[in-house]
Amino acid sequence: MFYYGIDIGGTKCAVTAAKVVGDEITILEKESFPTPKNDPDGVLNRLYELLAPMIIKQGEGKIGISCGGPLDEETGVVLGPPNLPGWDHVEIVRFFEEKTGYKAKLLNDANASALAEWRFGAGKGTKNMVFMTFGTGLGAGLVLNGKLYSGANGNAGEVGHVRMSLSGPVHYGKKGAWESFCSGSGIADLGRELVRKKPECALLKTAGNEENITAKLIAELARKGDKDCRAIYRKSGRILGKGLAILIDVLNPETVVIGGVYMRSHDLLDPAMYKEIKKESLPYAAGVCRIKPALLSENIGDYAAISAAMEAE
To answer: In the prediction, which pLDDT does 164 show?
Structure first.
């Protein structure tokens, strides 16, 4: 049995063929292309053009589709993700099943990534695990009692919209949403807030203008000792810990795996994060929970889509 993964993102799409034996995955082929704007039909046709020769070469299999929400995992329909303009009510599972004759499964990218880290990465061997993206946005995937928990229609784990503060950048249409502090775009927005209040700061001098401010640049300056940039990551870590304390108390996971910015900059986030968890979470829940950076790194999109394929029935 072969598995075919389709990873759909706002900037890039990819098609992957893989073989899975036990808990080991081998990527056999991969093709990718930049995602054009407002052209779901064009993207679907291009994805099929890349998928078809892989199926001919490798053989029978199942298809997994990893895509940002909102979407309906039960019906296999993409429902207009903010990073995919024009993708309103796209019946993507039906498209690929009719084209190939093989079963396909659509998963929210956070859910698919949770399965990938649980099967092949930092969550391997656990029964209860939370995965958090901490990338462009903040989403979560939940593996509870050894199974993916998606909710009624695949939208469980949308933690990024939860309001964590009455102030802060606006994300998810809310000022102070969790994503406003704990995402690459959120940290960049905190940097822009800084330079507006303090135009003489090193961040603006280094970036040149607000558009060049990124979470990566802020991390670089923080590691060089810049107090303003260290304060931004300290604030992000504090809000991260505050939210994690809630998840730890409600879900009682063994492991929380965090990707994206946390994976690259947890040294800057951990002190404030752990301090907040200790302050806010029940000690007997926090005591059994380990916070880990994701292991699958830049390959997580491929592994996530393949993990979605493994759920196809």
So the answer is: 94
What does DSSP assign to residue 233? H
CA distance 141 to 257: 10
pLDDT in tens, 163-205: 999 888 888 788 999 999 999 999 999 999 999 999 999 999 9
pLDDT of residue 193: 96
DSSP helix, strand, coil percent of the chain (3-state; round to 5): 45, 25, 30
In angstroms, rounded to a whole number, what is the distance separating the alpha carbons of residues 162 and 179?
Answer: 8
Q: How far apart are CA 218 and CA 190, in angstroms?
A: 10
As a whole number of angstroms, the distance between CA 119 and CA 278 comes to: 29
Structure tokens at 119: 């099967």
Q: How far apart are CA 198 and CA 236, in angstroms?
A: 19
**How far, in Å, CA of 18 to CA of 302, rounded?**
9
Give which of 264, 275, 307, 252 is closest to 126, Cα–Cα.
Answer: 252
CA proximity to 245, closest of 291, 176, 186 = 291
Question: 53: which 2 tokens?
Answer: 């020769």
Instruction: Output phi, psi for 225, to 5 deg.
Output: 100, 5
Q: In this structure, are strands 255-258 and 129-132 parallel, antiparallel, or unpaired? A: parallel
| pTM for the full predicted model | 0.89
Residues of the chain with confidence (pLDDT) below 50: none
